[in-house]
Amino acid sequence: MQKLKSPSEVNEMRLCLEAFETTRPCISVCAGSGCKASGAQNVLDSLHRELERRGLEGAIDIKSTGCHGFCEKGPVMIVWPEKVFYNGVSQSDAKDIVNSVTNGHKPVEKLLYKDPTTGQRVLHEHDVPFYARQQRILFGNNGKIDPKDIRDYIKVGGYSALARVLTNFSREQVVNSVKRAGLRGRGGAGFPTGTKWEALRKSKVRPRYIICNADEGDPGAFMDRSLLEGNPHSVIEGLIIGAYALEASEAYVYVRAEYPLAVEHLVVAINQAEKAGLLGDNILSSGLNFRIHLVEGAGAFVCGEETALIASIEGRVGEPHPRPPYPVQKGLWGKPTVINNVKTWASVPVIVNKGADWYASIGTERSKGTMVFSLVGKINNTGLVEVPMGITLRQMIYDIGGGIPKGKQLKAIQIGGPSGGCIPASMIDLPIDYEALTQAGSMMGSGGMVVMDEDTCMVDVARYFMEFLEEESCGKCFPCREGTQRLREILVRVSQGKGEESDLGLLDDAGWMIKETSLCGLGQTAPNPVLSTLRYFRDEYEAHIREKRCPAKVCRELIVYEIDPAICDGCHACVRVCTTEAVLGEKNKSHTIDSAKCIKCGACLEVCQPKAVLVH
Amino acid sequence: MPTLTINGIEVEVEHGTTVLEAARFLGIPIPTLCHDDGLVPYGACRLCLVEVSSGKKRNLQASCCLPAEDGMVVSTHSARVERARRLLVEMYVATCPQSKRIQDMASAMGIRQCRYQAKHETCIQCGLCVRMCEQQMMAGAIGFAGRGLHREVTRPFDMTSEWCRQCGACLYVCPVCELRCQGPQAETTMCNGCVNIPTACFQSYDNAMCFLDPCHACEIAGPFRADVQVKPRFNDFAQLKK
Question: Quick one: pLDDT at residue A594?
Fold first, then answer.
């Protein structure tokens, strides 16, 4: 691609690309990490082979795109221009798909999405209930563009926001529109982005730096990864606009080394943007000089905290330091620095293009725009969901998520990553909003949402998250390092039935203390899983402590496996799967379980057809 | 020069003064474990927390790292601060019950019971030794390694660094092992701290400076206590004493 020399050339380029748009059919296959794990690469290969075999290489295009979001049904694909949406494609389906394209686009019935309630097949992506309720302003383009081709991004209107900013906007105007849009940090804390930018502009110190925080460490969260993999140019465009508004000449993207595909796509995108004259010296003849550096993190969860992240970029140990001074006063290399999350940066071009008022019209009074969640756990439609703020948890879980599998009851929703809190099913009409979630004892976080059903023990959940946080606490300040260990110790004791009545008060006290006294955001939110489960599920803790009983039948020390002799038909299936030879009994006679040998793995429970295995 | 209010007392301090320094200037005692006047504040022990009001918000912040600002309203002993501090010290006592300084602190706060299991850790990772070595002794011979559970003060590659002059400054500032020998003492004293307490910062202190060796009194006491293995660390030093 030739070098673009002025803002108007960006628009000319787009018009040119649109004019050359062929009517050739195009199969765009999701090649995000989720779909790749379910075999998207094989599908791509077999599609290529099929086209080669039939000599159709010039007639049908194949595109590998970023994540479409519907990971549950992966690999997914869209066939353009009819926009037919296929899910659960396997490599043997390549022939059928190519056939359908050549035979006048008659869709392959078996690959269309089947609505679980009506049983009808759905032709288009936007009619699938999973997508219908979403508002995909950040992720909407993921299915249309090849992340490794800058032309695809320009064709869908990419870099037009940058062109507009460089011609029509003063620096203050950019900051003002971000402020007016009500954009708040998408990394978790929800600090108003415009206010942060304004604070930086007050500083007279030069140079200034901007940082994109792509150190996404929450277990089960993959929003930032998917955006960087699927649409890296949107983040780069946001950074360039930020650099213009904040007079920064350099940006650092701090991305986890565990995201090789995101790193690869980002490197390609940065190189292409440099070649296109969108990065480097005198960008689009505006006099703006700006470069982006990529830093790969080494996998510490705490490096998502801004001061720790800066320390890590500087080559120091990734540990936070007390604020103030805030990074906008004294950040990277001691210079004023703005750090924003991937999604925050990617929201900036949208705000410029569609207007601050349009953006501010989405969402609630204090939380504007859309939020991206990775919906995981005991839910039918796992995947990446972008919804307007203010949507209720009920809509999230039942309309978009498709409800709980196997007809089970919803018990709790854990929002905000490991240090988020558990919200009980009774509060399902809570709107998704920074303040509402914080008030309920949880937090927005960067967008992890784990759904739990009736088979989940809340003590066990709290213990699991404390184990994670104990490992990931950097260890600098005492309350976080020692406190997470102590909380975990107590929870382990409780889940083993060795808890005492005083442990409840101790958990309350220690949790409160860690929250109040810790140095950084990690410690200040670390007790959330414990405090929120104590608040909403205190009866479960009491059952563990007083009755030595696990109501959800999860904690191994507190449950016993038995076989009901009245139901057991002696099929021997459990005997075959038991690894410790704990199931005794002859064939066709009812079996018994030797509790001394039983390790409570649950294998017999799973294989028992007549459901004779009971758990007490 | 910023003027701030601490516990209702207005005080004008020089630019760059921390809230801790301002409070101490007024004679208000704030407990600390990781603070030393000669070292860069670290903010790890969290004991110096004070309640700072800004607008409607009231936050707990570490006063050792908090620069005094104009109009700041600080409360050093509010109920919230006291409760947080007491709970924190209770956890400190459980972690390091052998430290005299922590014990004194707990008793001054009226803590009479500890609800956690005692751990007898030898280090609270206050970072004083590391900062002392780097900032005052200009050596940087010790540092932190590992993360979270596995974080510890150690020497590079677990070997004595060539930068280490064995000055012993690290041990001098340690708040946890200060019960041990305090340098040369009268011959009649017998603290035995050195043999009763596991070493604080280092697993082996073979090459550390003389006052790390069992104090003179203990050495004399040595033969009477067969269970204590006392051997002179520096031959020439032992000869000198003879």
Answer: 87
